[in-house]
């Protein structure tokens, strides 16, 4: 338990933290609820809280006063500058940085290492700025369109690709930003981070799982576009819209989860064999 000497400074720091960062957090929670691109935060944030509670505190806290104070000062300055520019992403990053500074100041860096997984999940729950999202979505749209068109051509479907527009006989498919695969990529990265943190025990294994989420998401999003074009050409053009289109996306997403889970199991097996004494 925290002693009486540190209880008052901790309470004061907590109240100041709430005063500075309540508004950015409420705005973040509103985005989780209303913005489809940020909705993963509704799942990640409660999981992060549970993981932090489950990990608990280190047995022997070693406060890092100087480092903690330096991080806090930087976070407060970032919060002030973000408020002046009305830049919500900066204020949200400052909110997380200030929390890390408080942990370092009162409990030390060992506590940060213990909470690395929940803190990483909270970081992933902060939506990127619209400019960054747009710059990421456009290349993903082009890559998914190219892969989908190549798969359609391999199945003898007459196809012509113009940027992110796929021309089929009697129908044109637009690979929009919502179909770029950015949402599924964010979800798969979050899943890879969570699975690696809970199941895997080595840093290289977690990195492998995290990096693998990128090609898996891109590959399966290209397959989704291929299936849409295939059904449109051979079955019914109306299958590009409505329930079939969305259910197809969910089915591909389940396959992506299964692939990532299978890779996690494989990495886990390799880890056990590497650790096994000769």
Describe this structure as you would to a colleague.
With about 280 residues, the protein is mainly α. The chain is about 75% helix and about 5% strand. Strands 1-2-3 form a 3-stranded antiparallel beta sheet, with helices on one face. A hairpin with a 2-residue loop joins β1 (about 160) and β2. The protein is globular, with a radius of gyration of 23 Å. The two termini are about 45 Å apart. Residues about 1-5 have low confidence and may be disordered.
What order do the strands of the largest sheet run in, or round the barrel if closed?
1-2-3
| Overall outline | globular
Q: Estimate the strand proportion.
A: under 5%
Gyration radius from CA atoms, angstroms: 23 Å
> Could you state the order of secondary-structure elements as H and E?
HHHHHHHEEEHHH
Number of separate strands: 3
Helix content: over 70%
The number of domains: 2
What can be said about the biggest beta sheet? 3 strands, antiparallel
Mean pLDDT: 83
* Unreliable runs: 1-5
- Count of helical segments? 10
The assigned structural class equals mainly alpha
Beginning-to-end CA distance, first to last residue: 44 Å
Please write out the topology:
Elements: H1 4-34, H2 41-55, H3 65-85, H4 88-106, H5 109-114, H6 116-124, H7 130-154, E1 160-162, E2 165-168, E3 171-174, H8 182-199, H9 203-234, H10 242-275
Antiparallel strand pairs: 1-2, 2-3
Helix pairs in contact: 1-4, 2-6, 3-4, 6-8, 7-9, 8-9, 8-10, 9-10
């Amino acid at each position: 338990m925290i002693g009486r000497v540190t209880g008052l400074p901790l309470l004061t720091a907590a109240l100041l933290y709430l005063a500075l960062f309540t508004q950015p957090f409420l705005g973040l929670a509103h985005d989780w609820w209303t913005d489809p691109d940020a909705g993963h935060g509704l799942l990640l944030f409660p999981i992060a809280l549970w993981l932090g509670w489950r990990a608990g505190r280190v047995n022997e806290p070693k406060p890092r006063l100087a480092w903690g104070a330096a991080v806090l000062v930087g976070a407060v300055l970032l919060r002030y500058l973000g408020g002046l520019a009305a830049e919500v992403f900066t204020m949200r990053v400052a909110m997380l940085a200030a929390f890390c500074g408080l942990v370092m100041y009162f409990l030390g860096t060992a506590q940060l290492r213990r909470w690395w997984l929940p803190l990483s999940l909270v970081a992933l729950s902060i939506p990127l700025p619209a400019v960054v999202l747009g710059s990421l979505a456009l290349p993903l749209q082009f890559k998914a369109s190219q892969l989908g068109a190549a798969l359609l051509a391999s199945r003898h479907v007459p196809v012509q690709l113009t940027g992110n527009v796929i021309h089929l006989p009697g129908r044109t498919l637009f690979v929009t930003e919502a179909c770029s695969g950015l949402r599924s990529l964010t979800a798969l990265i979050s899943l890879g981070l969570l699975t690696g943190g809970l199941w895997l025990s080595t840093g290289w294994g977690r990195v492998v799982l995290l990096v693998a989420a990128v090609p898996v998401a891109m590959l399966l999003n290209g397959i989704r576009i291929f299936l849409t074009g295939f059904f449109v050409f051979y079955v019914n053009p109306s299958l590009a819209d409505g329930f079939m289109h969305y259910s197809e996306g969910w089915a591909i997403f389940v396959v992506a989860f299964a692939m990532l889970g299978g890779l996690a199991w494989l990495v886990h097996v390799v880890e056990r064999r590497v650790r096994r004494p000769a």
